[in-house]
Specification:
about 100 residues, 2 helices
C-alpha cells in the first residue's frame, strides 16, 4: 500500500517544527518529524496496526492512530490502495478539538 500525507497533515508537521524552532529546540522538531515518517512507513505493510480513534468514530470512516513521541497521534485512514495521513495531533490539546 502507498502512504500519502494530506495537506493539513503536512501543515501540522510544519507547525510542530516551527514551534520547536521558535522555542529553542529545533532538533526536537526534526526528531518528531522523522518519527512521524518512520511510523507512517510501517503502515505500508501493516495498515491496521493502529487503534481506532475514538474521537473520530462519529465520522464512521475508520480513522486510526499511532503514537509518536508519546505526545502526538499520527491520525490516518485506510482507503485501499492508499493510506491517508490526515493529522498529527498533539495529545496535550483538548481532544474535543478533534471531534467532527
Amino acid at each position: 500500500m502507498k502512504v500519502q500525507f494530506t495537506a493539513s497533515a503536512l501543515r501540522r508537521l510544519q507547525q510542530i517544527r516551527d514551534y520547536y524552532r521558535k522555542n529553542g529546540n529545533p532538533t526536537k522538531g526534526g526528531k518528531i518529524t522523522k518519527q512521524v515518517f518512520k511510523q507512517s512507513n510501517l503502515l505500508k505493510d501493516n495498515p491496521y496496526m493502529g487503534q481506532e480513534e475514538e474521537y473520530l468514530k462519529p465520522l464512521k470512516q475508520g480513522h486510526r492512530y499511532l503514537l509518536v513521541d508519546k505526545m502526538y497521534k499520527l491520525i490516518y485512514l485506510v482507503a485501499k490502495p492508499i493510506i491517508y495521513i490526515t493529522d498529527v495531533f498533539d495529545t496535550r490539546q483538548d481532544h474535543d478539538k478533534m471531534k467532527p
